[in-house]
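Protocol step 4 of 6: structure prediction from sequence.
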Amino acid sequence: MGNRITRGLQQYKQKVLNDVKRGVAETTVLLHAESSSRAPVDTGALKNSIDMSVSGFHGRVSVGSSYALYLEFGTGIYATKGSRAKKIPWSYFKDGKWYRTYGMVAQPFWYPSIDEARRYFKSYFNR
């Protein structure tokens, strides 16, 4: 009788652990898919820099592009609230011409993806 209870508890424990691993893996895959699909595409470098890995209870999604932060939060006068970006226009020289810019409007892709993954994670573990 005791062996049957012990075996049942071990099976239940393994099922719970497998469910948790599956939830972490599914959430990681979702975050990768969401952030990749929401990433603005010009050259494709940003989208291609989004990477993921899953190992047991740990999932990781990272963005390797050096300019992802500027796309997420904007620059100059268009920078989102709380930014320490300079709120003045600036000039730069390119292709033999001078250009003036006031910044770039934010194109959020990361935080909206995190919000979506968070909703999925909560619903998965509240079943």
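Step 5 (inspection) to follow. Residues 2-126 form one domain.
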